[in-house]
Design brief:
Layout lengths: L12 E6 L2 E11 L4 E10 L4 E3 L2 H4 L15 E4 L4 E2 L2 H10 L10 H17 L7
Antiparallel strand pairs: 1-2, 1-6, 2-3, 3-4, 3-5
């Protein structure tokens, strides 16, 4: 499913999907002329775990979790981005109060995000440009 460039806007929650995992992220900026989006990862959801990558959903202050080091943002092709529906995100938001709300250590976050992105990129269908 390809979405129109005009349908995305800053602040919107989107997701990237690979295998059985989803990376939910916030749109920071759309680069329409390059068909790219600047994304801020929020949470990585797999069958086994929900890994929070940002204080946005947990409500922690920056000082109590990772200092200024919130992890990397992503620049990603628009063709792989899906808008997250309210029903997609509601389960994740509801889980905030049922699991440990603190963010994992920075290396755990980076490793999980790196593995997801590598899997998604390696298994990405090549476009015929």
């Amino acid at each position: 499913m390809t979405i129109s460039k005009a349908s995305l806007h800053p602040g919107q929650i989107i997701y990237l999907s690979w295998a059985n995992d989803r990376l939910y992220a916030e749109v920071i900026q759309i680069q329409s002329e390059r068909c790219l989006a600047w994304l801020r990862p929020l949470v990585l959801v797999s069958r086994a775990d929900i890994l929070f990558l940002s204080t946005v959903l947990t409500g922690e202050t920056v000082a109590t979790c990772l200092g200024d080091n919130q992890g990397p943002d992503l620049i990603w092709p628009l063709q792989d981005i899906y808008p997250a529906l309210d029903t997609d995100v509601m389960g994740v938001l509801a889980s905030v109060h049922h699991i440990n709300q603190t963010l994992p250590d920075h290396s755990t976050q980076l490793t999980a995000l790196q593995q997801f992105i590598a899997g998604l990129w390696i298994n990405k269908p090549q476009s015929s440009a």
